[in-house]
Amino acid sequence: MTSRPPHIARLSAAFRIGLPPLLLALCCATPALAIDPPYQKQMERLSEVMGSLYYLEPLCQAGSDDWRAEMADLIALDEPDEDRRQRLAGAFNGGYEAFARFHHTCTPASREALTRLLQEAEKLAREIHTRFAE
Fold it and tell me: Span of the secretion signal (predicted)?
């Protein structure tokens, strides 16, 4: 049996004593990243579309849909963590702002966008439900 040189023995003991607390500190210092559900991309797009509808529908027609309330219900049903909730709300707000920048009155282009967005929202909602609902 060969003995270790003293400096190697001290270093080895220091690692045995210091390494577990160091690893624990590193693990606790970095936040755990949640994994997005497989439908996150579609949910973000649906949120964006709903934000656009929230702006365009009152501009072009007296619709009875409250897209903001619908979005709040959708988020509540999905029960996302705070990060995902912020991204969904951000997508909704981004969709609203995208149309608010350029559409100040209802034009033929606004009406066409409204029609297409309603169709896309329906398609996305159906796809999310069909593929991912339990």
Answer: 1-34
CA distances (Å), origin 6, targets 3, 12, 14, 15, 89? 9, 10, 12, 14, 60
Would you kindly state where each structural domain of the chain is located, as residue ranges? 40-132
Residue 81 makes CB contacts below 8 A (sequence gap 6+) with 34
**Residue 26: helix, strand or coil by DSSP?**
helix
For 22, other C-beta atoms within 10 Å of its C-beta total 10
Three-state SS sequence of 101-132: CCCCCCCHHHHHHHHHHHHHHHHHHHHHHHHH
Which H or E run includes 27? helix 6-29
How many separate helices (H) and strands (E) can be counted in the chain? 5, 0
Cα–Cα distance list, 3 to 6, 38, 65, 102 (Å): 9, 56, 80, 79
